[in-house]
Design a protein that fits this description.
Chain lengths: 114, 113
């Protein structure tokens, strides 16, 4: 099993630029989560999907953030325009609805906004 | 909503010593408590979990305990080794139709050889 695949692993961009992070969940998983990790706030849930439908986006910090899941095997998290305070590691995770509840995380995308 | 507090934020021990990380939660409906380990440059990975109908669970050198009355749960690592050095997260959730864990802030465990 390939696990959750995220790209890019590292992204350095300038303030004001658009950033798109990508995620391929584990095949057969019903849930997909986007988390942001910073030293100050730890792991924050941004949004999650169930069967490709966004269920709760209350963790999305601002309108500059948007997420989509056009099909069961792909999701994007977009930041437009990016700001230095968006610098963080962004994780995608997936899980199976009928499982024990274990979340399988990708290796993360480290974003630096200059 | 659920609120999970985790202590300490940093824990430094000598190889061979035991390490204990403690968490509290606020929602009495929570009934599933997983622990995740995050190694440097990687995503968190589940290492052990406990459900509310169990008070303690062990897996080799790691054990978790749960006190539902006090809303406390803890991770115990015995005979620590340098490879145990990582960030550990506790979480709490309610198992039901959907399952969304609330994570603690994490504990950075450093095991000195």
């Amino acid at each position: 099993d390939a696990g959750v695949i995220q790209s890019p692993r590292h992204e350095v961009t300038e303030m004001g630029q658009e950033v798109t992070l990508r995620c391929k969940p584990i095949s057969g998983h019903d849930y997909l989560f986007w988390y942001r990790q910073t030293m100050m706030r730890g792991l924050e849930l941004l949004i999650y999907f169930n069967n490709n439908v966004p269920i709760d986006d209350s963790g999305m910090p601002e309108d500059r953030f948007s997420a989509k899941m056009p099909n069961a095997s792909f999701s994007t998290l977009k930041i437009q325009p990016s700001e230095p305070r968006d610098s963080a590691v962004y994780f995608c995770a997936s899980s199976r609805q009928t499982s024990t509840g274990e979340l399988f995380f990708g290796e993360g995308s480290r974003l630096t906004v200059l | 909503g659920e609120n999970v507090e985790q202590h300490p934020s940093t824990l430094s021990v000598q190889e061979g010593d035991s390490a204990v990380i403690k968490c509290t939660y606020s929602d009495s409906a929570s009934n599933y408590f997983p622990w995740y380990k995050q190694e440097l440059g990687k995503g968190p990975q589940l290492i052990i979990d406990i459900r509310s109908n169990v008070g303690e669970k062990k897996d080799q050198r790691i054990a978790v305990t749960l006190n539902k009355t006090a809303k406390h749960f803890s991770l115990h690592i015995t005979e620590t080794q340098p490879e145990d050095s990582a960030v550990y997260f506790c979480a709490a959730s309610e198992r039901g139709g959907s399952y969304i864990p609330t994570f603690g802030r994490g504990t950075s465990l450093i095991v000195h050889p």
